[in-house]
Inverse folding.
């Protein structure tokens, strides 16, 4: 049973998926505390609905990022958190937090990293014209969206996609892979070698492929 | 029927796939000339075996890239080439060629662009720890591996992969998507909007996904 601290800034749909998977018995984890850096967000309401302790720590009350992270750290330690989950947490995390939780801070990013780090990824992807997009759960390191990759999901991008339709397609996969990454951690399967993360004892993914647009010439 | 000029620098396995698909009647295309910038490469032997005209134009005999490209251009025009195919051609193409063939130079890159442009991509991917890799056929523009994307294929990367095993897995897909891109061009289906390439009249790829490592929590 791993103790989670979940950091949020918004609606918390990934938080909800984790809550649902815990309640369904799919995750050997419990959420000890939900912390939002923004007051009034819906993620806090989700925590209350499920009787999960929650609080607001506004980054605006701290002059330096490090001071904000020190406060986060104190609260996480008080709640005996082992693994920190960034579920749509829109703040850069500093070494103050990362050095206290080495390879124990996980983030989800709505792109196939290392493609499309940063924000506004769906519109950027549509405009770039990529044929595949996806999402990535990774351990957080001191760079922006650069940490070791735990799990990824890939989906096609269609000619008529908008940022919204692409976001919706990716979000479905986010809700699965974040929980899967947490369970891999809970089972002690994640081994970090250099910047590779290996999942020990998990059957290999099928030797499959996807092509977009689809191949039609072999029908001739 | 579209007239192809194929530029090569090495063994030419993508050239072979195109030849095979033409001979099988899957491509409305003919190869008018194969040009290698390196003497003695196996791609030239493949052309001879299939009675396709071929020649060597060594870049070493030209002081400037533009002069080399001017010579390429002359030979391509002489052979009435409409679409230029870079099949493992290890030279940067200049505007001399690109402006004569606007959106009519195609390249294949063994990565899911915009991830991993450049060379030695397989080892870089393994070391980076990405869970998916792939290949991309794109129109060539004046940047390095930056042109509008026509088609992509994606495959998983396994924990025990080496550069060689990953290369082999990707190469299988390269051999399909390069021919498919050529046929989409031959059928007049490719519409470039900004930097997006739309494939008109082709059924949408299935609304599918792949996850790596695979999700096991829903089996609980």
């Amino acid at each position: 049973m791993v103790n989670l601290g979940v950091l949020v800034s918004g609606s918390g749909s990934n938080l909800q998926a984790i809550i649902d998977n815990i309640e369904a018995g799919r995750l050997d984890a419990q959420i000890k505390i939900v912390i939002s850096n923004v007051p009034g967000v819906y993620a806090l309401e989700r925590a209350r609905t499920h009787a999960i302790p929650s609080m607001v720590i506004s980054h605006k009350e701290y002059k330096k990022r490090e001071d904000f992270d020190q406060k986060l750290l104190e609260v996480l330690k008080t709640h005996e958190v082992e693994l920190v989950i960034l579920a749509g947490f829109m703040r850069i995390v500093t070494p103050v937090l990362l050095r206290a939780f080495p390879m124990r801070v996980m983030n989800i990013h709505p792109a196939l990293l290392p493609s499309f780090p940063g924000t506004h990824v769906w519109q950027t992807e549509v405009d770039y014209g990529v044929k595949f997009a996806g999402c990535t759960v990774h351990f957080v390191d001191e760079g922006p969206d650069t940490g070791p990759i735990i799990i990824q999901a890939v989906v096609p991008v269609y000619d008529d996609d908008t940022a919204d339709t692409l976001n919706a397609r990716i979000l479905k996969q986010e809700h699965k892979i974040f929980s899967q990454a947490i369970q891999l951690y809970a089972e002690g399967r994640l081994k970090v070698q250099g910047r590779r993360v290996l999942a020990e004892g998990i059957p290999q993914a099928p030797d499959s492929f996807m092509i977009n647009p689809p191949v039609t010439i072999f029908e001739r």
Summary: Residues 107-220 of chain B form a domain with the Rossmann fold fold (CATH 3.40.50.170). Helices of chain B lie at 13-23, 42-49, 65-78, 95-98, 121-128, 163-186. The first helix of chain B runs from residue 13 to 23.
